[in-house]
Specification:
This protein is α+β, with helices and mostly antiparallel strands and 112 residues long. The chain contains 2 helices and 6 strands. The strands form 2 sheets. Strands 2-1-6 form a 3-stranded mixed β-sheet, covered by helices on one side. The chain starts with a helix and ends with a strand.
Length: 112
């Protein structure tokens, strides 16, 4: 259940961002995260609601923006979004030697 740990991380980052912005309380917490992180988004929402008060944001709403995956071919250097169904072969040359360019991000911002 890594949703609980992620919810705590989001709450901690949001509280820090709120302090940096001089906000007494964050009302909206916006998160950008990789679509392939494997998180259950409903469970992540539930976990955030359980702990948001501990971070000084008892009324905060969590908004999640999923970032589409992007791959880079190690053979030809082409960057592309993989097709649905997790076909990771390069669209340009067909190579299976690819790497994910993103999907590790967890960007958090807050609004009053």
């Amino acid at each position: 259940m890594h949703e609980s740990a992620t919810a705590y991380e989001i709450a901690a980052l949001a509280a820090r961002r709120a302090r940096e912005k001089g906000l007494s309380e964050a009302k909206i917490v916006r998160v950008r995260m990789g679509a392939w992180t494997g998180h259950d988004l409903d469970e992540l929402q539930e976990e955030f609601q359980k702990i948001r008060g501990q971070a000084g944001m008892p009324n905060a709403v969590l908004e999640i923006d999923l970032v589409k995956p992007k791959c880079r071919c190690e053979e030809c250097g082409t960057e592309y979004e993989p097709e649905a169904g997790f076909s990771l072969r390069c669209k340009a040359c067909g190579s299976a030697r690819i790497s994910l360019v993103n999907q590790r991000e967890l960007d958090v911002d807050v609004q009053a």
